[in-house]
Every structure is written in structure tokens, then in C-alpha cells.
Amino acid sequence: MRAWRVHRLGPPQEVLSLEEMPEPEVRPGTVKIRVEAAALNFLDILLCRGEYQERPPLPFTPGAEVAGTVVDAGPETSFRPGQRVVALPVLPDGGLAEFVVVLEDRVYPIPPAMPAADAAAMFITYHTAEYALHRRARLQPGEVLLVHAGAGGVGSAAIQLGAIAGARVVATAGGPEKVELCRRLGAALAIDYRRDDFVQVVKEHTSGRGADVVFDPVGGDVFDRSRRCIAPEGRILVVGFAGGRIPEIPANHVLVKNYSVLGIHWGYHARLAPGAVREAHERLLRLYAEGRIKPLIFRHFAFEEAITALNLLAGRQSWGKLVLVP
What we know:
The protein has about 325 residues and is of the alpha/beta class. The chain has two domains: about 1-110 and about 295-325, Medium-chain alcohol dehydrogenases, catalytic domain (Quinone Oxidoreductase, Chain A, domain 1, Alpha-Beta Complex); about 125-265, Rossmann fold. Helices cover about 35% and strands about 25% of the residues. It has eleven helices and 15 strands. It has helices at about 10-15, 40-50, 115-135, 155-165, 175-185, 200-205, 220-225, 250-255, 265-270, 275-290, 305-315, and strands at about 1-5, 15-20, 30-40, 65-75, 85, 100-105, 105-110, 145, 170-175, 190, 210-215, 230-240, 260-265, 295-300, 320-325. Strands 3, 4, 5, 6, 7, 14 and 15 form a seven-stranded mixed beta sheet that branches. Strands 10-9-8-11-12-13 form a six-stranded parallel beta sheet, sandwiched between helices. α3 packs across α10 (about 275-290) and α9 packs across α10. This is NADPH:quinone oxidoreductase family protein. One of its GO terms (molecular function) is oxidoreductase activity.
């Protein structure tokens, strides 16, 4: 089989190589999947660079989420050949490969008619947004939800789920095309951060009160400025640091303004509460079947185009999710 491999750390275009490898063998408690779609995430870039908080041993295959068909299953597993699934491979044996073997507890069924690209593109982003908005922020109908990077994978999921929850969604994005995407996804107000000061716009939109919940996958200056437009007793959700800089939180400002800063590490939650993740998976599949959510996919790329796709993602030249199709 073919797989993308990293033998040394650096930018994806310098360290990723497409190689022939033996197909992985199924083991007890695992499921072997023929990969029909592999979604790309910013963490794949960070892993190649050695900048992610977890460093797999070299060499490794990146790829955090795949969808496809079960071709074999180990003893005492509940899956059978022919079932369609979405899965979260564990590094160093990631999903940018034609076949992958995954522990059963990281494999989830999907409907037979669900496109593999949609299934792969949905999982991490929608689970992250659902966990952040509902379990951590306890988002309520009528609250103002500010979503940064609204045209990105996780941001677009947060807009849709926030609107379904009855929140008044305000989104930020860079450029008119991405702003329009946010509106189509359900944002009541979309702000082009390249042109307008989102702090001022949010304050004007809320008569000076600010946003009740801020969904921030960017960090850096975006986090710092979000503190200026958070409502009293609001909640800032720390989802990631796509902007590069990890901000520092002044405890005195948190105290004086009575707001909360909540960490969103969905992977840690998934390890602690696997039952809750399966329940969330069923809820999200129902919303998808009802046509109320749909992942925003920038483009399907051929398996050989992984480096091109990752460079687009790194250069902020895309929106939504990018998916490889072996």
C-alpha cells in the first residue's frame, strides 16, 4: 500500500514522502479499514514541523481522521467486514495511507449512504464544537456567540451548531468570500477582520455588553482582543492556537470582569468519556441526516496531492476542510 511518511521534522513539503509499505495486519481489539477519505487538519502541519504538543516517534504517518470500509476485524470486536466507519488512527500509524488499523474504541459507524469525505471532514471539527459549546460553555438560546475563523473547519462547525442552539452568532473571517460563507452557514453577523475592528463591531452589535461566549481557535492577538469584548460572566473557549502565539491570561482581568476562560481539549475529553463521545456522534449523525449540518469542504484532493493541500492549509489559502481521496 501507499502511505505518506515523515522521517525527519520540518515543513511538510520538505519532509513528507509517499512510500510503498506493507499493509498493516489486524490485531486483537483492532479494525482494519480501507481508507476512502482522509481529512487534513492543522495539527498534521504542526506534527511535521515537530511543533505539536505530542511528538510521535520517527518515522510516522500523519492523519488524524479517516472514513472508509472495514476489510477485517480482530477477535472479539463488534465490527465486521463491509461496514462503513469513521475512525481516529493513533500515531505513529496515522490515516494518510490506503489502509489503516485502528483500535476498536476509536472506530465509529456511519450510515451506508454517507459520503466518506463528509464523514471524515465532520468528526473532529463537529465533536470539538459540540463539546465546547454545550458541555463546556453551556450555551443558551438567545446568547451572543462570537466565532473566530468562522470559515475554517472547526469555526464553520461552531457557527452551524451555535445557530441550531438558538444563539445569535457573530463570526469573523478574512476577506469577503469567507465572510459570505459565514453568513450562509448561519451567522447573523459576519465581520471581515481585515477591514473592521471586531471588538468595536461586537460592542455596537450588543449595545456595549459584549459576547456571552467566544469560540477562539486562533489565540494570539485574537484572544487578547476578545477579552475586550467579552460580556460580564461570559466564557472564552480556548480551542487552539492557529495564529501561532499562545497568549497569556491576566488573572486580574478575569477577576475584575467576572468571565471564565475554558480549555477545549476534545481529545482528552474523548479519552476520559468515550461513552459521551459515542452519544455525541449519534446526535451529530441525526443532525446531518436531517440536513441541519453539513461539513464545509474546500476541495477533494487526490491522495498524491497531500503536500499541495497542506501548503494551502498552512498558507490560509483555503476554507473549511481539505480532504484526500486515495
